[in-house]
């Protein structure tokens, strides 16, 4: 069964059309009572790292809105202080840098991010 997990988007940096941010954190209990642990993405990154799509609203019927430039697991020490202040129990997370395409939807989302719209990032997985 496919499940979705979301996290308030945290933007670490914007350089040109590339945005780096955190899309998942480890060690907190989410609204479903689940905890994501370090290593949860290891198999996916090993098997599919170059095939991960950055979609808008998980919509596989529309083209991706960005290209993943890098995606990696980070430690607690690499988490931004603002995230740890809000959730001191965190043990790490997942960081992604994506470059937004020059398409109407991607431009709309990218401009929203630049202007501070509080989007969420999420990932789908098979339990």
Can you characterise this structure?
With 127 residues, the protein is α+β, with helices and mostly antiparallel strands. The chain has 3 helices and 6 strands. The protein has helices at 42-48, 81-86, 104-114; strands at 2-8, 10-15, 18-26, 66-75, 92-100, 120-126.
Count of helix runs: 3
Beta-strand content bin? 35-45%
What does the radius of gyration come to? 14 Å
Strand order of the largest sheet: 2-3-5-4
Oligomeric assembly:
single chain
Q: Which series of helices and strands comes N to C?
A: EEEHEHEHE
Q: Level of helix content?
A: 10-25%
User: Structural class of the helices, strands and pairings?
Assistant: alpha+beta
Low-confidence stretches: none
Largest sheet: 4 strands, antiparallel
Number of strands: 6
The whole-number mean of residue pLDDT values reads 91
Q: How far apart lie the N and C ends?
A: 6 Å
Shape: globular
């Amino acid at each position: 069964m496919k499940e979705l997990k979301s996290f308030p988007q945290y933007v670490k940096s914007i350089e040109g059309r590339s945005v780096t941010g955190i899309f998942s954190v480890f060690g907190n209990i989410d609204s479903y009572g689940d905890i994501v642990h370090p290593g949860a993405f290891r198999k996916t990154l090993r098997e599919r790292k170059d095939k991960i799509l950055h979609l808008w609203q998980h919509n596989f019927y529309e083209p991706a809105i960005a290209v993943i430039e890098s995606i990696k697991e980070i430690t607690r020490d690499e988490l931004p202080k603002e995230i740890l202040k809000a959730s001191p129990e965190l043990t790490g997370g997942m960081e992604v840098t994506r470059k937004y395409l020059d398409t109407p939807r991607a431009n709309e989302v990218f401009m929203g991010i630049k202007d501070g719209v509080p989007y969420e990032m999420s990932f789908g997985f098979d339990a």
